[in-house]
Amino acid sequence: MAHIILTGCTGTAGSAILAQCISSSKVARVSVLSRRPVKQAEGNDKVTVHVHNDFGSYPDSLLDQLKGAVGCIWALGISTSQVKPETITYDYALAAAKAFASLSPTFNFVYISGDGATRNPSKCTPLFGCVKGEAEVSLLALRSDNPGLRVWNVRPAYIDETQNPLRDGSDIVLKKVMDRAVPLLRTVWPSGVTPTGPLAGLLESCALDTSSKEDVKARIQGTGVTIEEGGTLGVLLANTGIRRLAGL
Fold first, then answer.
1. What local confidence, expressed as pLDDT, does residue 12 receive?
2. Which of 79, 103, 206, 243 has its CB surrounded by the most CB atoms within 10 Å?
């Protein structure tokens, strides 16, 4: 069983990924990096929460505790209207990938990007799409100097958390609204909705995958999947690919 690193565990996707890893027989140890304690992890012996305030820097004392981890699922993020190139979306992800690349001989960095991210922006492209696309390219470029690093850029569309067992229920009004609205969204736009459970399971499998680049390509190639050129394994999963691989 494996050791995996998680970030963003108080968010929509992150809390579902934490639930998945806690219940998974494939994961023996979960290291959560968070600025504050994570309520969902309390009392679980499998999970260690490292309270970490500077996601742009990783001291040796912390890396020593993360040694042996085979992957990181980077779910740390903010509202698309707040995206700034110099903060969480770009710099923090790059700093983490660089720091974690040598924790194991093969290390999977799974970056949750988003539907709408693009590497060829136009004047009309929202800032969110530009910054996420830049982050994807820069993460892939790290492979040339880090032979054990494998990069998975994942672009989910609307993430449906209504069936997430660790869902934050503090905002009761919002919860009731979403419980009514999301089933309608699933009906009118099924291809644009990704439930947190299947998404979390797929992300876990990406983070734990140690098979060869050729084997990964043979197993997952198809609609919505791009195997990146050059270096070690690099994968782009569009929302159609996420849904296909998750069996949706």
1. 83
2. 243
